[in-house]
Amino acid sequence: MVINGKAYFPKNDLDRLLPPKIAYNPNDWYDAYDLMRSEGLTRKYISDFIRRKEVPCRRNGRSLLIARREWDNARTSRGTLSSSYLTVESARKRYHISQKTFYDAVRENNLQCIRQNRYAYYNIQDLNRLFKNKQPKIPPGIRREYIRGRDALKKYHVGQKRFSEMTKAAGVTKIRTKGNYVWYKKTELDTLFFMINSRI
Q1: Residue burial 98-127, b: 16+ Cβ < 10 Å; e: rest
Q2: Domain extents in the chain
Q3: What is the pTM of this model?
């Protein structure tokens, strides 16, 4: 189409005839040739797999580029997830960290996750590197003379609400340490619950 002496061409046709070059970023894409060489896969297997699993792919000249994250997700089995990955909630419990601490570290270190259904899974080795050796150190004296609140609930077979009300009313000594742990004096708890049980 010529308008005022300028020629205009349909954009869709131009994109088809002259597709823009894709910048190959190995952080975002696998090259099919590299997968064939590193994992011993055939080109037919890769083509069938990405079609069956609907993994995004693109052509870059003669190269077939495959979306890295979607490929990894599709290749990860349920058994591998349960043995080698943790959900956000599981990681927080294991490393005794807050949600903010978890996500701040994940973003800062650019950790990739695998998403299945509504859960995000993170590799345990990556998480250990970030959090395992940073758990708070609890002095031996506290571990010897005090017991953590959640462990006390199991020992004395009592619910959280009742435990809190009873220890507060009895004035049981408690202290808070790093990691947001609350510890209660063992001897005072033993006395308190012995007295209660003896009345029953």
Answers
A1: eeeebeebbeeeebebbeeeeebbbebebb
A2: 24-75, 84-134, 140-199
A3: 0.40
